[in-house]
Every structure is written in structure tokens, then in C-alpha cells.
Specification:
7 strands, 7-stranded mixed sheet, 9 helices
């Protein structure tokens, strides 16, 4: 299975001024380390970090106006600015439409090929939108934890995005309460597992000042501003935890 490597580049889109969208609230408070970044900290000291980003369409970059404006390349640029001189490799293994079950089914192979210091796993949104049982999600998380812990890699969990309250899409309407519940569950999983977590659902509460609240016209996938803001918050929280 080929792994797509994200290029290290800083975008020139109006979506971001020096990497940060206008009125995007960037804060390390949206990131909780849970004392779970020892391998990444050691890799940082060595001058070389490999990060595997996995999940569904928002890791893949659906909704971005150009390939280099998705979350993974934006995050690479944001981290490179914070850690100049460190060789940072991000591997994008986001596949649109996946639930936790499908991501976990390929996780062991992806981790074995990438040999990452850190895995960033975005999870939960598609599971909520497909009304999957919470018991199934828990079982899949436990299976993933066995794989990740065996690989001795650090983990950052990314909880679901917030949807526009005004959406007219029937499949998305009134889904935020369920997405918020899963975000709370993911926070609990992270705490119990010693994994870091980026609270994307909560962070997006403060995105009113950026274009369309950071969400594209389909009311689901992020736009350029949303990807830039999410990447900057991830990088800010991660760098603060590693210093």
C-alpha cells in the first residue's frame, strides 16, 4: 500500500495570513496532552519526527480549494514554523467516508509501513452521521489501542467537527448534540489511554469570525479557513505540550 507524503509547503491563499486566518482563535487550551507524548518529544530532540495522520475526509482534505490547503499540509507548515531545523514528515492516510471500523481495519498495516513517532487520528463524525452503536465504537477503539500501544507510538485523537446550526441538509440537521456527546467520549478515551486529544468540536464554537465558520457549502467539510484554523490549533497545542 502506497503512503502519500504531504509536501512541506506554506500556502499563499487568502485563507491564511502567515498561516492563521483572520479572526481565527488559536490557543493551546484546546489541546490536552495527558502525559502521552514521550516518543514525540524524544524524536524532536533527535531532529526528525514522523507523523501518521489517519481518519476520514477531513484528514484527506475534502473541501479545500487546493491540495496544499488541506489539514495535513497546513499542519506540516504550522509545525515547521514552530520547529525550524527539525525534519518533519507527515503521512496523509485520510480516506473520505470511513467510519472507525474501516480505519481500524487498515491501521496496523499503515502503522507498520510508516513507523511513526506520532499518530493523529480523527474519528467519530461519520459514526455519528450513520447512527452507529456506541458499543461498536468502543470495541473498535479498544482494537485500535491494542495496535497503537503495541507499536509504541504516541497518539493524538481529534474529535468531530461542529456542524452549522442553520444547515438545511436533513442528514446533518440537529446532529451537534450527538457529535458533542462523542467528543466527550473521545476525551474520556484519551484520558484513560494516556493519549493526547485536540478538542476540535469545542474549538469550532469560536469560529464565528472566520468565513462560513470554517465550513464549506456542503455544511460538512471544512473550507480553507477551517483547515488553516484547525491546523494552527493542533500545532499550537502540540508545540506547547512538547516544549
Amino acid at each position: 500500500m502506497a503512503l502519500a507524503l504531504a509536501a512541506c509547503s506554506i500556502m499563499t491563499s487568502p485563507a491564511a495570513a502567515q498561516g492563521v486566518p483572520y479572526a481565527c482563535p488559536v490557543s493551546p487550551t484546546y489541546f490536552t496532552a495527558n502525559n502521552g507524548l514521550a516518543h514525540t518529544r524524544a524524536a524532536l530532540r533527535s531532529g526528525r519526527i514522523v507523523i501518521l495522520a489517519t481518519g476520514s475526509s477531513s484528514i484527506e482534505g475534502a473541501g479545500a480549494s487546493a491540495r496544499n490547503l488541506g489539514y495535513v499540509p497546513m499542519l506540516q507548515g504550522a509545525l515547521q514554523r514552530r520547529f525550524p531545523g527539525v525534519a518533519i514528515t507527515l503521512i496523509n492516510r485520510g480516506i473520505g467516508g470511513e467510519t472507525m471500523r474501516e480505519t481500524v481495519a487498515r491501521l496496523e498495516q499503515d502503522v507498520a509501513l510508516a513507523q511513526p513517532d506520532l499518530v493523529i487520528w480523527q474519528l467519530g463524525t461519520n459514526d455519528v452521521l450513520r447512527d452507529r452503536p456506541s458499543a461498536d465504537m468502543l470495541a473498535e477503539f479498544q482494537a485500535a489501542r491494542a495496535i497503537l500501544d503495541s507499536a509504541r507510538t504516541d497518539v493524538v485523537l481529534i474529535d468531530p467537527q461542529r456542524l452549522p446550526e442553520t444547515t438545511s441538509h436533513a442528514a446533518l440537521k440537529d446532529r451537534n448534540p450527538a457529535l458533542g456527546t462523542v467528543a466527550t467520549t473521545i476525551d474520556q478515551w484519551a484520558s484513560q489511554s494516556g493519549y493526547a486529544v485536540l478538542h476540535r468540536f469545542e474549538a469550532m464554537r469560536g469560529w464565528d469570525g472566520i468565513t462560513a465558520g470554517g465550513v464549506g457549502p456542503d455544511d460538512l467539510h471544512l473550507n480553507d479557513f477551517g483547515y488553516a484554523c484547525w491546523a494552527e490549533n493542533t500545532a499550537e497545542g502540540l508545540s506547547a505540550a512538547l516544549r
